[in-house]
Amino acid sequence: MCSTGSYTLLKGRENQQWIFKTPKGMFRIQGKKENPVWKKPDWAFVEEGLPVPSENNPSRFEYGVLGDYALALGDGYLIHGTLYKRFLGLPVTHGCIRLNDEDLYAVYCTLEPGSKVFIF
Amino acid sequence: MKQSISVFLNRTGDWLRNIKCRDFLLILLGILLISYTITSITASRKKAAELSIAGQTLNGPEITSFLYNSEKFRQLKYEEAWLSSCITAAKKNIFTLAVDLPDSTLSINLGGTMLYHARAEKISPEKWFSSLSPEALLSLQSSPQILTRQWATFKKEPIVIKQAPENSQEALAPQTIPDTTITKPLMMLLSLDNQINLAIIQSDKTKGYGRAKLSLKMHLEGKRAAATIRSMFNRKNKIYIPLITLEIPQKNCETIYRALPDSALVTLRINNLN
Predict the structure, then answer these.
(1) Which residues of B228-244 are buried (b: 16+ CB within 10 A; e: fewer)?
(2) Contact call for B164 and A116, based on CB within 8 A
(3) Domains of chain B, each with CATH number or no CATH
(4) What ipTM describes this predicted complex?
(5) B168: nearest CA partner in chain A
(6) What pTM did the predictor assign?
(7) What digits encode the pLDDT tens for the residues B125-140?
(8) Which residues of B touch A9 (CB under 8 A)?
(9) Interchain contact, B110 vs A118, CB within 8 Å
(10) Strand, helix or coil at B192?
(11) Inter-chain contact A49–B168, Cβ cutoff 8 Å?
């Protein structure tokens, strides 16, 4: 069971907008990481009503929110863990795929860079 | 003889002079209905003939004669056409809906991998398909078709629009999770670029089923009527668009519709409908 994109269209100022949906199609694992650090994109600040900091500002980096492992699918989309286990099975993410710890470990151990991932 | 013709013409003239608006509209409606019927019949025959010619061109005269003489050869050619279509679709790396009418199955494939599979509980192709020649059937299923249009009684992507909060206080307001639960009966109409329509409807007779089916029927008839009127004004022959209706469980219906992207490919296996 996983959580996927919420299909929310976030409208910011100056005609900025972001659509939070998980892309469909065939992808390949671009890379794997243990104890990943989330580098917050602009929308994460806009969504919380906070000013957007500069590119390498320390406030952009969040530790522990992505779980123990992360697998990159490209274009910023990841398969990663979550602190919010009660939301698994619901469309709540910003596009990434969230798994529980057990499933994430299994996927992390099984897939290698270049492995195919089908999302439909 | 001449006298009777002139009497007839005089009476016709009198009638035309005294014709009322209501009568005129009735006459116009009658003409439209007659032309609709005639164009429908001629269009269906024309389409069948065009497919036969395409099939003969594809296979050549020698193969065509074998198709009529040997049932086993015919079945092998159908199988070859279907597999060839599937291979072509697999190479393109696009989501494919594979509709296998003899086996009553629908599946979503990508790159040759089956991602999802559903069993059709009922299949109702129009009678036109039974009248097709073997070459026409071969032509119809030898290559994948592109999905040009999709219509359904439910949303494909239930997007929720959220305005960015002005400040962090406003952002603390309770968040709503979009409700993707589907409450209406699921019916969809898929239009292929070879002018065939696939109606995939749920087999579960839930609340509002009749109304949803009527909605689908009205959408379909509306499209057909619009096509007829367009062809009359453009003075072009009406294109016949046959329909295949498949009934599958509601859960499968939802997954299939939401999985299909805008220009998905569709492979169709329709032999053995005779």
Answers:
(1) beebeeeeeebebbbbb
(2) no
(3) 28-160+181-269 (2.40.440.10)
(4) 0.77
(5) A49
(6) 0.77
(7) 998 898 888 888 888 8
(8) 159-162
(9) yes
(10) strand
(11) yes
